[in-house]
């Protein structure tokens, strides 16, 4: 009994002396997990450096495109991506008008270098499949042809973070495909691509 009373007095002594009882320090919270996944919605404008049709004086094809790109970050600088794109454009020659539609599906790789907390620069390349369709309209006569081929692109640009999970980007893109519908030339293009990127 004496031992119990002595222990109770010893434990209560700091309280009566005005000293707070020691409190164990909380365990540090684990760092939040950062998802490696992100996506991009891009818009592009391209102008061809090759003729639209063999042996004809058609205007060089100009194309407007949209794409959806899924990205997976391997680390801070390196990432893999898969891009689905669609583009359309027109070319004409003395009353004949050509409409073109292009679909691409291309996996790729990108290297990104952060300049500071908001700006970064990047370079990447993609290669995959392309499907191209042409429709010709001339004096009430309509023609159509399509073809499959390989698609490729290389891109360099800058990114600006507008918040921790979103950024905007602008880049130069070189692209082309080997798809050649009957009578047409395979297209090689120069263009610009801009859009919005979002992290999950």
What can be said about this structure in brief?
With 200 residues, the chain is mainly beta.
Key structural traits:
single chain, 8-stranded antiparallel β-barrel, 1 helix, mainly beta
Can you characterise this structure?
- By secondary structure, the chain is mostly beta strands.
- The chain has one helix and eight strands; from the N terminus they run H-E-E-E-E-E-E-E-E.
- Strands 1-2-3-4-5-6-7-8 form an eight-stranded antiparallel beta barrel.
- The chain is elongated, with a radius of gyration of 30 Å.
- The mean pLDDT is 88.
Q: Report the sheet-strand fraction.
A: over 45%
**Cα-based radius of gyration, to the nearest Å:** 30 Å
Largest sheet: 8 strands, antiparallel, barrel
* Number of DSSP-assigned strands: 8
Specify the overall morphology: elongated
Quick check: average pLDDT? Answer: 88
Helix and strand composition category: mainly beta
How many alpha or pi helices?
1
- Topology as H/E string? HEEEEEEEE
Termini separation comes to 64 Å
Helix content: under 10%
Strands across the major sheet, in which order? 1-2-3-4-5-6-7-8
Low-confidence stretches: none
């Amino acid at each position: 009994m004496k031992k119990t009373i002595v222990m109770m007095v010893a434990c209560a002594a700091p309280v009566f002396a005005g000293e707070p009882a020691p409190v164990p320090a909380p365990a540090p919270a684990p760092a939040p997990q950062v998802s490696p996944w992100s996506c991009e919605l891009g818009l592009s404008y391209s102008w061809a450096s090759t003729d639209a049709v063999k042996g004809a004086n058609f205007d060089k094809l100009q194309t407007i495109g949209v794409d959806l790109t899924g990205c997976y970050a391997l680390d801070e600088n390196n990432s893999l991506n898969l891009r689905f794109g669609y583009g359309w454009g027109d070319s004409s020659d003395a009353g004949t008008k050509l409409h073109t539609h292009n679909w691409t599906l291309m996996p790729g790789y990108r290297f990104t270098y952060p300049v500071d907390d908001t700006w970064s620069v990047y370079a990447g390349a993609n290669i995959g499949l392309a499907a191209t369709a042409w429709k010709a309209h001339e004096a009430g006569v309509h023609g159509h042809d399509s073809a499959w081929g390989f698609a490729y692109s290389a891109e360099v640009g800058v990114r600006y973070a507008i918040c921790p999970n979103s950024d905007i980007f602008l880049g130069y893109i070189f692209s082309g495909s080997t798809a050649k519908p009957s009578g047409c030339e395979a297209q090689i293009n120069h263009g610009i691509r801009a859009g919005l990127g979002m992290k999950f």
